[in-house]
Specification:
The complex is a heterodimer of chains A (313) and B (522). With 313 residues, chain A is of the alpha+beta class. Chain A has 8 helices and 18 strands. Chain A has helices at 45-53, 99-104, 111-120, 136-148, 166-183, 194-200, 218-223, 228-234; strands at 3-14, 19-30, 34-38, 60-65, 68-71, 84-87, 154-158, 187-191, 203-208, 211-216, 238-241, 244-246, 251-253, 259-268, 273-279, 282-288, 298-303, 308-309. The radius of gyration of chain A is 23 Å and the shape is globular. Chain B is mainly alpha-helical. Chain B folds into 2 domains: 1-34 and 306-522, MetI-like (MetI-like fold); 35-305, MetI-like (MetI-like fold), CATH 1.10.3720.10. Chain B has 22 helices and 2 strands. The longest helix of chain B has 34 residues, at 43-76. At the A-B interface, strand 6 of A face helix 18 and helix 19 of B.
Chain lengths: 313, 522
C-alpha cells in the first residue's frame, strides 16, 4: 500500500520549559486511511499535526507527503506547498463571507467543483447563507468542504469534535466518517477522546510526552495494549496479580460462577452497572446488566480469560 | 527575504516614531538642558505643584463619586427614565471641559443667566476658582468612570448576585462589600483617565486662573520665551504622570482577582418601585441637569442671543476641524493597524518594547508633546538648513498621533484579540498573498473595532486644544481654537454657536460609540 505520509525521526523541543513534544517520532500513513493520534492534552498531538501542516518547524527529522519531501534538514516547504488541508477545532470559518465564498476561499476551484462539493457535503441550498446562520453540524461540513475542495494529499483534522455536546458529537462523528470515506481522502485525526478515535480510525497511534507509545487498529490497542499507560488510557481495569490486569467486561456475575465475592458498591451508568466486588481481599470492577444486585450481597462470578499482562510498569 | 526582515522592523519603527516627541524631550533635557534646582524652590513651582495636586485630587474624588453613582444606577436598576439617563450620562463626553467652564461662568456671573432667571442682577456665584475648576472637570470627565464602571457593574456574575440575595444581605451592605469592590479596577481606571485628562487641560485652567503645570509650560515658553524653564516644568509634570501610572499599576495588581467574578451571564436588572423609583429618577435628573442640561441650555441661550449676528465663518472652522480630524484619525488608525498586525505576525522583543513606548502619549499632556515636537522639528529644520516641518499640518497630526495612539491601538488590539489564531493558521495553509489576507480577511473582521477606534480618535482630537494651539499652521483655526479665542476675548455669548456646532459633531460620535458599547460590551 502506498504511504501518503512518511515521518522519520521527527523531533521538537519547546525551549520554554524545555518540553519535548515530539521525541524522534517515526510513523507512516497509508493512502485512503483515517489515522488517529490519540493523547491527553499536552501530550504533543496538536504540535505533531502543526508540524506536518508546516505551521510549526521541527528541530530535526524528515516529513514526506506523497513522495515529496516537505521537511528535512535542507527543505522546509510553506504550508501552501505541502498539499495539506486542515479542519480546525473551531472550524475557523470567516464570519463575513458566505458559505460558497468560505468554501472557495483557499482554492481556485471551478463552479463545477463547488457544486460537487456542496452536493456531497449536503450543503446545497446553503451556499448564500453566512456561517452564523448554520447549525454546528453544517458548519463542520463547511470546514470540511473548504478543506476537501483544495484536493489535499492529506486532510488534517485538529479535534473538530471537541467542545460539542455528547448527543451532537455522536451524530457528527458518523457524518464526518461518511464524508471522508465518500471523498476517499487520507486523513490524520487528532483527538483526546478514545470513543472518537475508535469509531473513526483505521489505525490509531497513542502519544504521551512526545513519544508514540503504540500504533495499531482500535481492537489491537484495546485488547493488546503496549504498556500500562496505554491500557489505563483506553479503559478501566483492576489489578489481579503483580503484572496482570483485567477489564471489567471480562468478569461476569453468574449463578454458576467459580468464584465468590461480596458487592461493595454499585454505580448506575444507564446502559450498565459498574459493580465493585470484594473477593479474597481483592477488589475487582465488574460490568453488569443485572438490575437486582444489592450492596453487601454475595454473588458468584467468572472470568472469560482475557487478562492483560505487563512486564514493564 | 529582505522584505520579510523589513516586516519585523515595521512595528518598532512605527512605535519609536510615535514616541519620538516624548523621547526627544527627555533626550534634550539630558543632553542640553540642565535642571535648574533654584527653580525647584521657586514660588511658581510651589504654586504649580499645589494647584495641580489639589485639582487632580479633587477631580479624582468627584468623578469617582459621580461615575460610581451613575454607572451603578444604570447597570443594576430599571427605573423611570433609565434608558434616557443612560444616554445623558455619557453625552458630557462630547463637551470639551473648557466649553463647560465657559457656560458655567456665563451662567453664574454678574448679570449672568441665573440673575436673569431669578430677576435679580445682584445674584452671582464666583466659580472662577479652584473649586469651580474641580466641579467643571468632574462634570466633564465623569463619563470615563461611568462607561467603564457600567460595563463592570453590568457583568458581575449572576451567581454573585444570587448569592447576595440568598444570604439576604441588605442592599447598602451588598453595594459596599460586594459590588463596589468588584468594580474598583474599572472605577479607578476611569478616574485615573480623568486625572490624566485634567493634567493635560490648558483651556479651562487658564480661563479659571489656576496656575497648573500646563499653564506653566505655556507661560514659560510663550510668555517669557524661556525654553529651558518650559522643559523643566514639563519634566516635573512627567514625574507627576509616572507617579499616577505607578499608583494605577499597584491598584491593578491588587484587584487582579476581580476578573474571575465577571461573566457573560449577567444578572437581570432590578426593577425599582415606589419611592426608590422616584429617588433614582431624582438623583439621575439632578446629575444630568448639572452635567448636561444647564451647559446645553446656556449654549442654546447664547446662540439665540447671537442669532442675528451669527459668524458664518464657523462653517469654515468646522471644515478645518473635520478635515484635520478625519485625516489625522485615518492616519493614526492605519498606523495602529499596521503596528498590531506586524506584532501579531512578525513579533519581536524590540517590537513589544516600542509598543509600550508608543502608548505612553495617553498620559502625557498635549502641551508637553507640543514642546517635544517643537524641539524635534527645530532640530531637523536646523540640520536641513530650511524649514520642513515647523508650522505644518504634519506637526499637528504627529502630535495627535503621539497623544492619542493609545486610544486607537486599544481598539485595534481588542479586535485582533477576538480573532482566533486558527484564522491565522488557515490563511497560511491557503497561501494567499498577505495583501489578500489583510483586505479579505483581517480588515473585514476588524471593521467594528476600526470604526470604534476612529470614533474615539475623532472625539479626542476634536476637543484637543493645547497641542493644536502650539503647533497649528499660521492662520489655520479649528473650532476648538476659535471657541478658545472668543472666550479669551470675553465674547462669551459668541461661543454658543461654534460650541454647539462642535458638540453636535462629537455628540454624534459619542452616540455611535455608545450604541456599539451597549451592543458589543467592549
Amino acid at each position: 500500500m502506498k504511504k501518503i505520509v512518511d515521518i522519520k525521526n521527527l523531533r521538537k523541543v519547546f525551549c520554554k520549559g524545555n518540553i519535548c513534544v515530539a521525541n524522534d517520532i517515526n510513523l507512516f500513513i497509508n493512502e485512503g486511511e483515517i489515522f488517529t493520534i490519540l493523547g491527553k492534552s499536552g501530550s504533543g498531538k496538536t504540535t505533531f499535526l502543526r508540524m506536518i501542516a508546516g505551521l510549526e518547524t521541527p528541530d530535526k527529522g524528515q516529513i514526506i507527503i506523497d513522495e515529496k519531501e516537505v521537511f528535512s534538514k535542507q527543505t522546509n516547504l510553506q504550508p501552501k506547498n505541502r498539499g495539506v488541508a486542515v479542519v480546525f477545532q473551531n472550524y475557523a470559518l470567516l464570519p463575513h463571507l458566505s458559505i460558497a465564498s468560505n468554501i472557495t476561499f483557499g482554492s481556485d476551484a471551478s463552479k463545477a467543483d463547488l457544486e460537487e462539493v456542496l452536493e456531497k457535503t449536503k450543503l446545497k441550498g446553503q451556499e448564500n447563507k453566512f456561517p452564523h446562520e448554520l447549525s454546528g453540524g453544517q458548519q463542520q461540513r463547511v470546514a470540511l468542504a473548504r478543506a476537501i475542495i483544495t484536493k489535499p494529499k492529506i486532510l488534517l483534522l485538529d479535534e473538530p469534535l471537541s467542545n460539542i455536546d455528547t448527543e451532537l458529537r455522536a451524530h457528527l462523528r458518523v457524518e464526518l466518517k461518511e464524508m471522508i470515506k465518500l471523498f476517499g481522502i487520507t486523513a490524520l485525526f487528532i483527538t483526546h477522546d478514545k470513543e472518537d478515535a475508535f469509531y473513526l480510525s483505521d489505525r490509531i497511534a497513542i502519544i504521551s510526552g512526545g513519544d508514540i507509545l503504540q500504533v495499531g487498529t482500535a481492537k489491537d490497542i484495546y485488547h493488546h495494549p503496549a504498556d500500562l499507560y496505554c491500557a489505563n488510557f483506553l479503559g478501566k481495569m483492576t489489578k489481579i496479580s503483580e503484572n496482570s490486569y483485567i477489564r471489567p467486561e471480562h468478569i461476569q456475575i453468574c449463578e454458576n460462577g467459580k468464584y465468590e465475592a461480596i458487592i461493595k458498591n454499585i454505580v448506575f451508568y444507564g446502559s450498565f452497572y459498574e459493580v465493585l466486588i470484594l473477593s479474597n481481599n481483592q477488589e475487582l470492577l465488574v460490568h453488569s446488566f443485572n438490575d437486582n444486585l444489592q450492596v453487601n450481597q454475595t454473588i458468584k462470578y467468572d472470568f472469560d480469560g482475557e487478562i492483560l499482562n505487563f512486564s514493564i510498569y | 527575504m529582505e522584505i520579510n526582515k523589513f516586516k519585523y522592523y515595521l512595528a518598532p519603527i512605527i512605535g519609536l516614531s510615535i514616541a519620538l516627541p516624548i523621547l526627544s524631550l527627555i533626550i534634550y533635557f539630558l543632553i542640553e538642558g540642565s535642571f535648574n534646582f533654584n527653580f525647584l524652590k521657586s514660588n511658581a513651582l510651589i504654586e504649580y505643584t499645589k494647584n495641580t495636586s489639589l485639582l487632580i485630587f479633587g477631580t479624582f474624588t468627584l468623578v469617582l463619586i459621580l461615575g460610581t453613582i451613575t454607572s451603578y444606577l444604570s447597570a443594576r436598576f430599571e427605573y423611570l427614565g433609565a434608558k434616557f439617563f443612560a444616554i445623558t450620562f455619557v453625552l458630557p463626553l462630547a463637551y470639551p471641559a473648557y466649553i463647560l467652564g465657559y457656560t458655567y461662568v456665563g451662567f453664574f456671573e454678574y448679570r449672568g443667566i441665573l440673575s436673569d432667571i431669578v430677576g435679580n442682577t445682584g445674584v452671582r456665584f464666583d466659580i472662577l476658582n479652584m473649586y469651580g475648576a474641580i466641579f467643571i472637570f468632574a462634570i466633564a470627565m465623569f463619563p470615563y468612570v461611568y462607561i467603564l464602571a457600567r460595563v463592570s457593574f453590568g457583568s458581575i456574575s449572576s451567581t454573585v448576585c444570587e448569592l447576595v440575595s440568598l444570604q439576604q444581605i441588605n442592599p447598602i451592605k451588598a453595594f459596599f462589600r460586594v459590588y463596589l469592590p468588584l468594580s474598583y479596577p474599572a472605577i479607578f481606571a476611569g478616574s485615573i483617565l480623568a486625572m490624566m485628562e485634567t493634567l493635560s487641560d490648558y483651556g479651562t485652567v487658564l480661563y479659571f486662573g489656576i496656575e497648573t503645570f500646563s499653564v506653566g509650560i505655556f507661560k514659560s515658553w510663550f510668555g517669557y520665551g524661556d525654553l529651558a524653564q518650559a522643559i523643566n516644568v514639563a519634566m516635573i509634570l512627567l514625574v507627576f504622570v509616572f507617579g499616577i501610572l505607578w499608583t494605577e499599576s499597584l491598584i491593578r495588581k491588587k484587584y487582579r482577582f476581580v476578573s474571575s467574578t465577571h461573566s457573560r451571564k449577567k444578572s437581570p436588572k432590578i426593577k425599582l418601585k415606589g419611592k426608590y423609583n422616584l429617588l433614582a429618577f431624582v438623583i439621575s435628573f439632578i446629575i444630568s441637569t448639572f452635567t448636561l442640561f444647564v451647559p446645553t441650555g446656556v449654549l442654546i441661550y447664547w446662540f439665540i442671543l447671537d442669532i442675528n449676528t451669527l459668524d458664518f465663518n464657523t462653517f469654515d472652522y468646522l471644515f478645518n476641524t473635520l478635515t484635520l480630524n478625519i485625516i489625522s484619525s485615518i492616519i493614526i488608525i492605519i498606523l495602529s493597524f499596521i503596528m498590531i498586525y506586524m506584532l501579531r505576525f512578525y513579533p519581536s522583543k524590540i517590537g513589544n518594547i516600542t509598543h509600550k513606548l508608543s502608548i505612553l502619549g495617553y498620559s502625557i499632556p498635549g502641551a508637553v508633546i507640543g514642546v517635544g515636537l517643537l524641539i524635534l522639528s527645530s532640530f531637523i529644520d536646523k540640520s536641513l538648513g530650511f524649514i520642513l516641518f515647523s508650522g505644518t499640518f504634519f506637526m499637528v497630526i504627529f502630535a495627535y498621533a503621539t497623544r492619542y495612539f493609545a486610544s486607537s491601538i486599544g481598539s485595534i488590539e481588542n479586535g485582533f484579540s477576538k480573532i482566533d489564531t486558527s484564522i491565522d493558521d488557515a490563511t497560511k495553509i491557503f497561501g494567499k498573498s498577505e495583501a489578500n489576507n489583510i483586505f479579505k480577511v483581517y480588515l473585514p473582521l476588524m471593521k467594528p473595532y476600526i470604526i470604534s477606534g476612529f470614533l474615539i480618535l475623532y472625539i479626542d482630537i476634536a476637543k484637543e486644544l493645547p497641542a493644536t494651539l502650539i503647533l497649528r499652521p499660521f492662520n489655520f483655526d479649528t473650532l476648538a481654537i476659535r471657541i478658545y479665542e472668543l472666550a479669551s476675548n470675553e465674547m462669551l455669548y459668541k461661543v454658543g454657536f461654534p460650541s454647539l456646532v462642535l458638540i453636535l459633531t462629537t455628540a454624534i460620535a459619542v452616540m455611535l460609540l455608545n450604541s456599539r458599547f451597549v451592543r458589543r460590551k467592549i
